[in-house]
Specification:
11 helices; globular
């Protein structure tokens, strides 16, 4: 099996911003604010109504410098729809070997969610580009270290319960990246004004600085 590599923007910045909302109308503006800061790996969750239309608009607007993928993907049918909409990667909260293998066969990076050593290894064996440790906050940084010790070959992305102040701790514990949603997007919704979007850009810059990616991400936004 040919394992797809980790999304270059994720490898470079070590941050995946998770865009989840009650509606998709404001997501393109949110994506632009994040890209302005240098956060160039964006997950649009399928739990957001109109997610795939928003994903396509974000991809078309921001171009190839920004990786846009689909999150909360649970079935191969959802994966096909996401790829048809232009998703560059797939994220799931669970380990579904068929979904992972299908993504790998198409050359699409897949980041399935796992918690136990058995789940992490199963996801890796199926062809995951990296494994999403979820929910990371339940076990904290100690859980990252405990998993990395017997499974050093498996890159782990810490997601769930991770905020800007703790992001660096997860990187130092051995995570290859962090995924952050509501702690980053707080106060931003479909009707966000320029002040709220500007504050989002500043938080995103602070996050990149925290994980040590500020220098490499500088100027990556559009």
């Amino acid at each position: 099996m040919e394992r797809p590599p980790i999304t270059p923007q994720l490898r470079r910045t070590r941050v995946m911003a998770i865009l989840r909302s009650s509606g998709a109308r404001g997501l393109p503006a949110v994506a632009h604010a994040l890209a302005d800061a240098g956060v160039t790996c964006l997950e649009v969750t399928l739990t957001t109504p109109g997610a795939l239309d928003a994903l396509a608009r974000i991809r078309d607007h921001l171009g190839a410098e920004v990786a846009v993928g689909a999150g909360t993907v649970l079935t191969t049918g959802q994966a096909r729809d996401a790829l048809s909409a232009g998703a560059g990667f797939l994220v799931s909260p669970v380990v579904d070997a068929e979904l992972i293998r299908s993504a790998a066969k198409s050359g699409t990076p897949c980041y399935p969610g796992a918690w136990t050593p058995t789940e992490v290894y199963a996801a890796w064996q199926a062809g995951a580009a990296a494994v999403k440790l979820f929910p990371a906050g339940t076990g904290g940084t100690a859980h990252v270290r405990q998993l990395r010790a017997p499974l050093p070959q498996v890159p782990l992305m810490a997601v769930g319960g991770v905020d800007i102040t703790r992001a660096r701790d997860y990187i130092d514990a051995g995570a290859c990246a962090v995924g952050i949603g509501s702690p980053l997007l707080r106060g931003v919704d479909g009707d966000s004004d320029s002040a709220a979007l500007g504050a989002l850009t500043e938080r995103a810059r602070a996050l990149l600085e925290a994980v040590g990616a500020g220098a490499t991400a500088a100027g990556a936004g559009r």
